[in-house]
Amino acid sequence: MTEPAPSILMYADTMRSPDMRAVIPHAVADPFLYIEHGGDRHVVVRSLELARMAEVPGLDAHASEEFGLDELVQAGVAAADVPRRIAIAACERFGVASAAVPPGFPLGMADALRGAGVELLVDDQRFELRRRAKTATQIEGIRRAQRAAEAAVKAIAERLRGAEIRDGEVLDDGGAPLTCERLQELALAAFIANGASADELIVAHGAQTCVGHHRGSGAIRAGEPITVDLWPRDDETGCFTDMTRTFVLGEVDDELRSYHARVRP
């Protein structure tokens, strides 16, 4: 006989938690409760999120008020304890006595639930496998993010190709030094034009390229490496891609040629 699937419990937002974003496609900045139990899927959210949650197939959306939000606030319960009390009430209503949780499950919430008798098991592998199984929507989101990355690299390459080298400096078409910041702006504009965004990106030059994850800054000079490392996020699905390219304008020195030879297929 096949064992029933364990209950799943998460408390997170979809902007920073890949586990939550894998099951809820919408961008939600505030943390909320997600429960899988007995083949049903539930979320407990603020009232203003109910309409969007109703769009998710197979999901039962509940307002926090159903689980005593107003009463808890009126009773003067500490703000940090309110969502914990709501989570306990939701587990009681849905019959959740034990559940698997992701490794990033909040400690305060875990302590409260365990104190109420809910057994929690941190299950890294289960949640990793859940994230690895992509839906058709997520796959298309990854493709859009990749198209955004490629558009950004193309915009940077075109600007570099059109630049002028004078006295060892790389000049923009306006006659001013071409900087990493300008190329970063081009990348961000390409992301937006392709339905993607990024909190960070890398366009670094010279010695900066030897510093792990240096964002890059300053004027670019001829003959030095320019590393472009981009990881845009698709706005609709929150799915990422990652793309890195290295450029050189002008003469390529022997050291850089040897690096290229080592990584060339």
Structure characteristics:
265 residues; alpha+beta; 4-stranded mixed β-sheet; 3-stranded antiparallel β-sheet; elongated
Instruction: Indicate the low-confidence ranges by residue numbers.
Output: none
**Structural class estimated from helices and strands:** alpha+beta
Strand share of the residues? 15-25%
Mean pLDDT across the residues is 94
What is the N-to-C succession of helices and strands? EHEEHEHHEHEHHEEHEEEEEH
Backbone CA Rg = 25 Å
What sort of overall outline do the alpha carbons produce when their principal axes are compared?
elongated
Give the N-to-C terminal Cα separation. 50 Å
Number of helices: 9
Name the helicity range: 25-40%
Biggest sheet statistics: 4 strands, mixed
**Strand segment tally:** 13
Strand order of the largest sheet: 1-2-3-4
How does this structure look, described?
- The protein is α+β, with helices and mostly antiparallel strands and 265 residues long.
- Helices cover 36% and strands 21% of the residues.
- The protein has helices at residues 18-21, 50-53, 69-74, 82-94, 107-115, 124-132, 136-161, 180-193, 254-263; strands at 8-12, 32-37, 40-45, 60-63, 98-101, 119-122, 164-166, 169-171, 196-197, 202-205, 225-230, 233-234, 243-248.
- α2 (50-53) links the parallel β3 (40-45) and β4.
- α4 (82-94) crosses α5 and α7 runs antiparallel to α8.
- The protein starts with 7 loop residues before the first strand and ends with a helix.
- The relative contact order is 0.11.
